[in-house]
Amino acid sequence: MATHSERVWHGGGQVVVTGDEEPRGLWSWLTTVDHKRIGQMYMGAGLFFFLLAGIEAFLMRLQLAQPDAHVVSAALFNQLFTMHGVTMVFLAGMPLLIGFINLVVPIQIGARDVAFPRLNALSLWLFIGGGLMLYTSWFFGGAPDAGWFNYVPISAGEFSPGPGVDFYDIGLQISGIGTLMTGINFLTTIINLRAPGMSWLRLPMFVWATFVTSLLIVFAFPPLTVNLFLQTFDRLFGAHFFTVSAGGSPLLWANLFWVFGHPEVYILIMPAFGIISEVVPVMSRRPLFGYTTMVLSVMAIGFLSFMVWVHHMFDLGYGPWVNSIFALSSMLIAVPTGVKIFNWLTTMWGGQVRMNTAMHWVFGFLITFVVGGMSGVMLALAPADLQFNNSYFVVAHFHYVLIGGTLFAIFAGMYYWFPKYTGRFLNERLGKWQFWLVFIGFNVTFFPMHFLGLMGMPRRIYTYAPHLGLTLWNSISTDGVYILTAGMIIGAINVLWSYGHGELAAADPWDGRTLEWAIPSPPPAYNFEYIPLVRGLDAFWVEKRYGNGRMLPAPEEHHGPPGTIHMPSPTAMPLFLALSIIVAGYGLILHSLVLDIIGFGFVAVGIYRSMFTVDHGYFVRPHHIEGVRADG
Amino acid sequence: MEEPETYTGALERALHISGSEIGGECRVASERARRIRRFLPWAVLLPAALSGCGLIDAPQSMLNPAGPVAQDQLGLIDSSIWVMTLVFVVVAGALLVILLRFRWRGQTELPPQWEGSTRLELLWTIVPFILLALLAVGTVRDSFVLAAPEGKNVLKVNVVGHQYWWSFSYPGTNIVTANELHIPVGQKVELVLTSADVIHAFWIPRLGGKTALVPGRTNIMWIEADQPGTYKGQCAEFCGTGHADMRLLVVAEPPAKFAQWEQQMEHPVVQPTSALAQQGEKYFASEQCSSCHTIGGTSFVGVVGPNLTNLAQRQMIAGNLLPNDAQDLAAWLKDPQAVKPGSLMPNLHLSPDKIKALVAFLQSLKTPAPSGSV
Amino acid sequence: MAEMHPPIGTHPVEMEMPAAPDNSVLGVWIWLSAESLFFASLIATFLLLHNQNNGGPSLGKLIDLPLTFVATVTLLSSSLTMALGYAQVLKQNYGGFRFWLVVTAILGLAFAGMQAFEFHHLYAEGFRLNSAPSGSAFFTLTGFHGLHVLFGAFWLISLLFFSFKREFVEEAAVKVKVLGLYWHFVDVVWVIIFTVVYLMGKVA
Ligand code: HEA
Ligand code: HEA
Ligand code: CUA
Ligand SMILES: [Cu+2]
Known about the structure:
Order of helices and strands of chain B: HHHHHEEEEEEEEEEHHHEEHHH
Shape of chain B: elongated
Number of domains of chain C: 1
Number of helices of chain C: 6
Helix content of chain B: 40-55%
CATH architecture of chain C: Up-down Bundle
Largest sheet of chain B: 5 strands, mixed
CATH topology of chain C: Four Helix Bundle (Hemerythrin (Met), subunit A)
Bound molecules: heme-A, dinuclear copper ion, copper (II) ion
Number of helices of chain B: 11
Helix content of chain C: over 70%
Distance between the termini of chain B: 32 Å
Oligomer: heterotrimer
Radius of gyration of chain B: 28 Å
Low-confidence stretches of chain B: 1-35
CATH superfamily of chain C: Cytochrome c oxidase, subunit III, four-helix bundle
CATH topology of the largest domain in chain B: Immunoglobulin-like
Strand order of the largest sheet of chain B: 3-2-1-5-8
Mean pLDDT of chain B: 87
Order of helices and strands of chain C: HHHHHH
Number of domains of chain B: 2
CATH class of chain C: Mainly Alpha
Structural class of chain B: alpha+beta
Number of strands of chain B: 12
């Protein structure tokens, strides 16, 4: 809209009024507190780590294509699958979803930003910092190599003397604290910042998914935090939580890990469910079938996800009672999940389904996720799991749910929301190529892994004997990765090209239902010129069908001074604080007192400054709003 | 293939039915959608069926059980596969119908705007619940059945996991052996599992599922072999660099033959006949081997490495990684880490001559079968 | 069976949203619920490992209950003084508020001092972070609590300095309320630790 800015200085240089032109340049990104920019950086960093983890996977598959191969050494292979798992889960999967959450949730509830914009930036920098820190372990004597769940004693100092596991402990601690802050931030945002009329049962499903995900984060991450601390103390200060010879308990780690770890995998699927629940109704031109049940089922899934963790440890010898109980609770999760699947199907059944690329991914999601869910239920049958456990059958299961579930939904969301946040469409033709290559490549890669598991191939082996009959399916699986990778590369090209050259998108290209489609593409920094009034579920759709097609403004008392919009100021403090924490982390790992003192000292300064600097923010005056100037 | 109840058997039956059904359907050209819907499950199962032989013939295949434990577990797997196939068919079928019938074809009218239906939603809450309840019965029953062996006639074996090899001892006897577990056919064997270092897991897919070996804790599991044979497996919990090479072998023998093996293990005879082998025995003492290895029938009593009693009677060495022949023994002694990365047996930088002598000695480690043996 | 999307008029326009708490207050509540799980995990760890002494001294014999009792009373009274301070803020009596703030900080630091003394004593007896799982669990649990007290003291003192700035007045109530929530939480956690670690440890 407006192209030039207008600044009005007010009272001692504190209050600035600008036009709605956005600042540019690297510094503006490093200091931004805008949830949309933060969301984009989450997506960018997430894709970067996805690429790294994909390369690691590629190397593993090359090694496994033939028996007794020597592409990588046994020791390197162990680092590869550990880093692959850790990266995919913590540095690619979660950040990509948190990216969407950042981009979409504040707008969908009719807010101008999250509750704590500066904390939001801190979360981002902690995630990126912790992730990069983890990767520097390759230069400090080797990456962690005890698997993504890092069981003790194999990860204890006695058996993993290098610094790799320290990087795991501290890198994940740092990025985990960032994630915890995200959880707190979005719970507060959703509870407090909903626009007038946006009652709980009018929240878009994606917001509900975010709400439950945030609850899972807030309740599941503390056990991980504690676990990582305990191990850090064991490894760096000689504590004995896990030292068997001193009476420590290896099963303590396993339990604390999975008390976190199982909810973690639902943290990875809930927002994906949310994305599907957004795309399906819009592309079928119908309201979501069974909205209330959908809400209840995400809550049920979230609740149950804390009661099933022992299903990862059926073989650790807890006995038939414990195993039976946890088997039953795990199977129970299939019920609310099934309700969701069938409600999506019914939304489309009898609707008018537009098979664009986003919808291709949705179909891919439904078919693949169901296969993954099925194998999940098979794993939950405790006696059968004693066979499946730690075999490639499990590897097949979790790639079906993580790729076919999480990743396909991420791609659906990408094709769906890209026009909103960049103002340009992703290319549909490239998109369909990407879809088919990825879909076929994925199934060729991972379906045979079910067979490999049944044929007795354990996971985490760098090689296998030729006479075990595993060669055929392993080589087919590796062939699949070529197809899969080709698809991913096309996807990357699509994103990079469309960012600058894609077809221009209007504000509401899909005939959307929720609030983000009621504002321009890309949205201005302040999202809404006026806070909207929400008059029903699918707020924007309601106005399009039954109102005059535009959101009505909320009553007076919900607005600031007329004609201007109050915005939080950019600040480098989150970046500074995150850097200080990273420095302190290196201090611990490298046993450097100097780094510790600098790091923790700066952390204290940073905390003080963040807590006690009053941000007066600045005012934006959208040029096409006719309003009174804030000051004479 | 061997038995009608096996996985492939069932698949083949399924495939057979499908063939005739598709043929019949083809005539009704207008029923395209229905035909595709019918065909879909078989299309999904086809690759599985085609590969049936490979899946079952594999030496570590859990689809080819050789004992009651694995048999029970396969039963549960089989029944769940059918439930899963049913659910998959319903979902995939619905997706196909949607693709074929409910596409947007440029209509401007909106489709009927349903918001929900309590009856339908109850339907797909209750039906999955019932399906799961069916599976739950077997799950709980098998959990208890498989937890501990029943009856009196149970052979106990203590299993200790080491990075990266297995130690087996038979309580009530002096028998200690490594990597190759001998059991009698038709008798339940209770394995008492613990670990000397990190967590490992004992897994012989054809005899039964796995149980972890956790340091500082004892777990139990049981297995039983129906037929004589050697059953392969490997360590199933990541335990370090050598995890992939920590392999297992179970030798199930008829009771008489097993008794004879016990006899040989209880009273091993070490008689290095050739001069070379006698030289090797001396090296075994002088080159530190004896500080780590025990050999029954000699004075060597190291406990760091595998017990080598009657080593020459074993099929494999180095945690069942290499065949037990002169060439591989020599390669092993020359540089253990080269053939088995991560192995904790040190490279002792032995000269070729010493290796030759040691190999001759190790190959002489077998106790002759008593006369009148099986 | 199928319901139709009702026209807009029949949907009640729920204008009255319940009065929401301030963002920071709500945020701190959520943060503290995460903290509860943090301490719950540490307490579970302690309960699992507190008898694993690795041949060294056992905690039960070393506990100095009177000292800890005094420390407990000190910390609990600091909760009271915190509340008194908050009451002064609501009355906009900032002088009184500063007084109670200082008292609270002193009580908190006194508690930390007694804990340091206790740790010193235990170390001298050979009960250490690195002596046995029981020591690891004890020092980690109580140590993390102690760090929370120290952080609280840092916060109290920072707020004291900040209270002389002009901006303080605008947000005083919220800023103090948030700190109060935190401080009370840390006290409650201590009551649980005192019960589980000290009282039950002495009885056992
Ligand atoms: C996105 C992540 C995700 C999701 C959603 C799931 C979903 C499920 N998972 Fe999975 N799981 C993982 C990620 C995930 N998992 C990972 C990463 C691991 C391995 C960790 C590691 O060891 O490294 C793992 C491992 C794992 C194990 C441990 C296996 C082992 O190590 O031995 C088990 C065992 O019970 C299990 C069970 C389940 C179940 C029952 C579900 C259910 O929620 C599935 C429910 C869905 C459906 C069932 C489909 C839809 C339902 C219907 C259409 C209704 C009708 C259905 C029926 C009647 C059956 N999972
Ligand atoms: C979200 C999670 C996720 C994802 C997406 C993947 C993706 C892949 N994974 Fe997996 N994997 C895990 C999570 C995941 N993985 C976990 C948790 C483990 C367990 C680790 C452990 O045991 O500790 C594991 C383990 C694991 C193993 C078992 C290792 C072992 O036990 O020995 C294997 C083996 O084949 C494997 C393969 C692959 C492959 C080939 C892909 C492929 O899909 C990857 C394809 C991707 C690329 C090739 C990158 C290309 C990207 C670009 C070009 C940029 C893209 C940009 C845009 C599209 C915009 N993975
Ligand atoms: Cu032992 Cu893996
Ligand atoms: Cu799980």
